[in-house]
Amino acid sequence: MEAELEAAIHALSGHIGPEKLERIRAIVQTNLARGRLDLYLSDHLHTPQDYVRRVAGYYERLHPTLHSLQVLKSEETWLPLYERLQRWAYKFLVRQGVASAQAASLMVEAAQAAAVTIATTYFPYDVEFEPWAVTILRQSCLQLIRHSRP
User: Fold this and answer.
1) How many Å apart are CA 110 and CA 112, to the nearest integer?
2) Is the pTM of this model over 0.85?
3) Once rounded to an integer, what is the mean pLDDT over residues 62-85?
4) Which one of 1, 4, 67, 84 is at 20 to 30 Å from 140 when CA atoms are compared?
5) Residue range 121-137: mean pLDDT, rounded
């Protein structure tokens, strides 16, 4: 499979520069080591070439945002995301049966915990950013719910 991945990465070389190509190669190799590629290929509808193209497409589209969030820590990028994290947290907490007053206080803590994780966690570039961020937020919310119950 590694030969197929390398061939797919090489096929991109006419479309993107060598620096981006190396970044995509590193992402694909990391995702392979973490088992993400196996999950993608498990439905038997996709090929390693599809996966490389997927990663390259997400990288091209999402890297500026991720760089702004994780490397530059840009307030301009973080503030709107943090506000969305709080809204998502509140809605999720209420759906989990948390009283609205308690949800209002927990949403800030959940959004903060999710923001720290988003800022420091590896992004695999094989998924959309928003569902990835929502998953992280939900995990933060569930941890807070577990810790806040007597």
Assistant:
1) 5
2) yes
3) 97
4) 67
5) 97
